[in-house]
């Protein structure tokens, strides 16, 4: 995809409210990091109170994935998760607009040699990530140290799409955003020996998935990781990031490449990926994106795991 270009159309009055909102956010994000963390937690508390449908989905996912926890423990985890979502809003703006030197001071990166070794060998890398609330800033921090391309879904609002893409691509000049459905471009990037951010942890429907357990629940799991690795002749390198509890920044980990991947079958590969997801999410469950209907697609004959809510009343 070409680099995003500013258009005079973005000055149309229909975009003025968004320009105003972006301006206010830009001003807020100039505050100290410690203050932004507190503001984020406050925003998360508001989201918890008023985002009834998302609160229900996240609560239900926690029930399904952590049945061993008491209701009180899951409720505390749920509130912390919404706090993390609120902080993520400001992390997004930080990654778009903070000076790179200011961002770099927050990052600790382990395992960068795994990407460097693949690059030296001319081998593409599927940087297998997850939908943590820290994904935006995690990709930005890693992008400052190593070129990574990313899977991309165009935003419906063209101005927001421009700002988002420009913010995401600014950390390395030759990075590119690839449409999520553009398989040919994905394979071209991998065969060129580049690294691409890819997350296989969401429900994309029955057509391109197999059902394998995730936290003990049958989950529609995409087989694309196997296909991309095989056709792109690429290594699969797990990548995680976490917001440090002491407020000092972020720890990013590039894990060793998966050995013997692809394996004997797509089902075995999907199971292996889900087992890794369980391990990674369990390390920092409060920072995962639980508001996604991960178990929406069910095996034939199984009822839905999510019930329709009749009201949106706050808790």
From TrEMBL:
Q: Which UniProt keywords apply?
A: Acyltransferase, Cell inner membrane, Cell membrane, Lipopolysaccharide biosynthesis, Membrane, Transferase, Transmembrane, Transmembrane helix
Instruction: Tell me the membrane topology, using the record's own terms.
Output: Single-pass membrane protein
The record ties this protein, via CDD domains, to:
LPLAT_LABLAT-like
Say what the protein does: Catalyzes the transfer of an acyl chain from an acyl-[acyl-carrier-protein] (ACP) to a Kdo(2)-lipid IV(A) to form a Kdo(2)-(acyl)-lipid IV(A).
Would the keyword Acyltransferase turn up in this protein's UniProt record?
A: yes
What's its catalytic activity? an alpha-Kdo-(2->4)-alpha-Kdo-(2->6)-lipid IVA + a fatty acyl-[ACP] = an alpha-Kdo-(2->4)-alpha-Kdo-(2->6)-(acyl)-lipid IVA + holo-[ACP]
Upper taxonomic classification of the species? Bacteria, Pseudomonadati, Pseudomonadota, Gammaproteobacteria, Pseudomonadales
Q: Per the record's keyword annotation, is Cell inner membrane included, yes or no? A: yes
The record's subcellular locations are: Cell inner membrane
**Know the name of this protein?**
Lipid A biosynthesis acyltransferase
According to UniProt, this protein's pathway is: Glycolipid biosynthesis; KDO(2)-lipid A biosynthesis; KDO(2)-lipid A from CMP-3-deoxy-D-manno-octulosonate and lipid IV(A): step 3/4; Bacterial outer membrane biogenesis; lipopolysaccharide biosynthesis
Task: Report a single Gene Ontology molecular function.
Answer: Kdo2-lipid IVA acyltransferase activity
């Amino acid at each position: 995809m070409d680099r995003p270009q500013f258009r005079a159309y973005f000055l149309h009055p229909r975009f003025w409210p968004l320009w105003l909102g972006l301006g206010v956010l830009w001003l807020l994000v100039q505050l100290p990091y410690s203050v932004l963390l507190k503001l984020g937690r406050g925003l998360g508390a508001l989201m918890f109170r008023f985002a009834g449908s998302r609160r229900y989905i996240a609560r239900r996912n926690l029930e399904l994935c952590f049945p061993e926890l008491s209701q009180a423990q899951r409720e505390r985890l749920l509130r912390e998760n919404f706090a993390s979502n609120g902080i993520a809003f400001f992390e997004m703006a930080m990654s778009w607009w903070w000076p790179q030197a200011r961002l770099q001071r927050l990052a600790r990166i382990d395992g960068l040699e795994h990407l460097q070794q693949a690059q030296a060998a001319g081998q593409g890398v599927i940087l297998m990530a997850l939908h943590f609330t820290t994904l935006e800033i995690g990709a930005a921090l890693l992008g400052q140290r190593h070129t990574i391309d990313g899977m991309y879904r165009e935003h419906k609002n063209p101005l927001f799409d421009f700002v988002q893409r420009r913010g995401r691509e600014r950390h390395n000049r030759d990075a590119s955003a690839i449409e999520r459905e553009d398989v040919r471009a994905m394979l071209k990037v991998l065969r060129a020996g580049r690294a691409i951010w890819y997350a296989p942890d969401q429900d994309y429907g029955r057509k391109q998935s197999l059902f394998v357990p995730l936290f003990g629940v049958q989950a529609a799991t995409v087989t694309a990781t196997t296909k991309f690795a095989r056709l792109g002749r690429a290594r699969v390198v797990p990548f995680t990031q976490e917001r440090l509890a002491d407020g000092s920044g972020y720890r990013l980990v590039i894990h060793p490449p998966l050995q013997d991947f692809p394996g004997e079958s797509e089902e075995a590969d999907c199971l292996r990926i889900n087992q890794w997801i369980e391990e990674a999410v369990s390390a920092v469950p409060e920072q995962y994106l639980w508001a996604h209907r991960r178990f929406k697609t069910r095996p034939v004959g199984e009822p839905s795991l999510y019930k329709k809510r009749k009201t949106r009343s706050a808790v």
